[in-house]
Amino acid sequence: MCDAPHARFRDRLTLLSTDALLTRAITELGSQRGWWADLAWSRMSGRFKPHAAAFGEFLFEHHGPPQSICHVEAFDTRPAPADIDAPCARTAAGWLRVTRFPSDAALPALPSVLAAPGRATVVRYHPRRRCTIRFEQDERTLFAKVYAVNRGERLHRAGLALWEAARRGQIELGVAEPERWEPHTRTLWQHKLAGEPVRDRLSGPDGPLLAHRIGRAVASLSRAQLQADDVEVLDGPAQMLRSRRHGTELSRQVPRLAGPTTELLQRLAALHAGSAPREPRPIHGAPHPNQWLEDGPRLGLLDFDRLSVGDPELDAGVFLGDLETDGSLKNSVTRMANSFFAGYESVAGSLHRGLVLAYRVHQQLTTSLRAARAVRPDGDWRAEKKLHRAIHCLKEGLS
To answer: Do 283 and 351 have their domain in common?
Structure first.
């Protein structure tokens, strides 16, 4: 399809999939402004958005010291002047606009938050949405999450409840200790959670044992006592709304996938409709394999931004769905799933296997969209491959 976004942008995606053109523009524009000299830049993230004014968005970092970050946007035509200092340059891939961090109109408190005591390092940044900063002080390390919208207060209250539950041993899970919520900067402060990542070990010989322990930890979270007004509901209907949005975007990004995406969503809706409603329970909402830490005998879980009440099968589906799409996993997904289920069900009773399957496939649909958003000339083919994997997973699970 010659009008498909990837076909239309293929040459520019090829240029922008490597860093040379982008870092040259960053260096030249930054030098003109007196921001920096010839620094070594590395890509933090990139996203292809063919239907937006800026068809490409990138973050680049110079590790320093000091750390420097810039936000780069790619346009078909020269963009209108911005409200902030953001110079532009014309390149073979289109017009590039460079904005130096922490300049962000949607996060105006960033400069004042960065002035807090300690050595500040940005660990995650979503322009116009959220920024996570690590502050290393003499005796402690804090993390600050700066939000564009006023949602951190609710997360802080829920975090306090989880911390107390963990401290009393009511959940088999370490969580970050809340520090404070600053309404004037929309910043949520938390202590560093001790532990080492377990992601790579899931592929090793002790992967099934880790999956069993993760299952127990997720099950214990489902027993936590949370105030209803502190968390959102993330159940089947809410997940279907989210997946329909993802399906719409995927179909626009890769039009030839519209038919199979619609069919997949219909089958997922039928799976949800066929399950009896149950009382919602606390769930993490996004317990990806890279969110887990190990501190001695205890596991810890990061980033409770999607803390909700809903189907506990969602947490199982997200974790297992990520393993399903991970090409580096050496243990079979079936073995890992059985270990996870055994751990979970030893603590909190049985999981509905059909719902777990549905949420696994929801997660794989998200992975397909993520591939379509990647700044790669083959992003459409990678998205198609991942979508077919999701379809196969659903068919196999229902057979």
So the answer is: yes
